[in-house]
Amino acid sequence: PIPIIIDTDPGIDDAVAIAAAIFDEQLDVRLITTVAGNVNVEKTTDNALKLMEFFNQSIPVAKGCGQPLLKELEDASEIHGESGMAGYDFPKVTTAPLSMHAVEAMRQTLSEADEPITLVPIAALTNIALLFSMYPECKSKIKRIVMMGGSLSRGNTTTIAEFNTYVDPHAAAIVFQSGVPIVMVGLDVTSTALITKPEIEAIKSMNKTGKMIYSLFQHYRGGSLKSGGLKMHDLCAIAFLVKPELFTTQETYVEIEYNNGPASGATIADLKMAYHDKTNAEVCLDIDIPAFQKWFVESVGKMI
Ligand code: BDR
Ligand code: CA
């Protein structure tokens, strides 16, 4: 299996992505790190622990940054609810995160690994940017980054910025300039690969996780059944890892606009390579939607 570290801000679509990753036999989740984003980092960490307990997993959880590098946090609790995972009544957490910071935990996991690890950030890139700034030698132990974030066209937070790159554009700039290979799974695919009524009905009583996801879906404001379905942004990054054949991609150079102003957090892809001689990212252009929807239902079938 592919060893991965998931960096996350659960978050309803994060919760579904984490579940899909844990129960996929092609992936080996070595560490989960949390960051502020959808809600504050106390809540995202608590949510990650809730999920581990729900799934009976002992994957270590490390708490990361509570603030973006330079900006103030602007959360997305209007989409995911006050707790970040509204809609399901999880028991109170009885386990604790690691005593070390997420950046230290990533460093340790990377340095102890017998093979390069894939980083899977499905949130703002604050922790990853700090890792690269504090311990640049870690880069050689990273196979690549497969991230949910960015957009080649419109945004979902401002006119052109996607939420994860908007929350911490300075961190995104550091990561895109890091030299580590990046796959950008952005809104271009994640906003079109909707989970629709038939899939939601299919998972509703499949198993205890299907029931839990179904309940979360009732409270999730990332799309609606009236508008065609729910956007499971972060799940698309996991789909890319295990079903890359569903995606059409292009190698290009992506720049991050990090200055304050209407374009802050925008990911500007030089698709014609008019301004750069070398590429820094593989961006997703298209996804096979029916195959993604089928894979989602099959994935839930593998859960407990
Ligand atoms: C991203 O923003 C968050 O709210 C989601 O969890 C996802 O990571 C989508 O823009
Ligand atoms: Ca997320």
Automatic annotation (TrEMBL):
Domain Inosine/uridine-preferring nucleoside hydrolase per the UniProt entry, residue ranges: 4-293
Record's keyword annotation contains Hydrolase: yes
Family matches, as InterPro entries: I/U_nuclsd_hydro_CS, Inosine/uridine_hydrolase_dom, IUNH, Ribo_hydro-like
Gene Ontology terms, MF aspect: purine nucleosidase activity; uridine nucleosidase activity
Keywords tagged on the record: Glycosidase, Hydrolase
Family matches, as Gene3D superfamilies: Ribonucleoside hydrolase-like
Assigned GO CC terms: cytosol
UniProt-listed GO biological process terms: purine nucleoside catabolic process
Pfam families: IU_nuc_hydro (PF01156)
PANTHER family noted in UniProt: INOSINE-URIDINE PREFERRING NUCLEOSIDE HYDROLASE (PTHR12304), NON-SPECIFIC RIBONUCLEOSIDE HYDROLASE RIHC (PTHR12304:SF15)
NCBIfam families for the chain: PRK10768.1
Name of the protein this chain belongs to: Ribonucleoside hydrolase RihC
Species per Swiss-Prot/TrEMBL record: Culicoidibacter larvae
Lineage, highest ranks first: Bacteria, Bacillati, Bacillota, Culicoidibacteria, Culicoidibacterales
The encoding gene: rihC
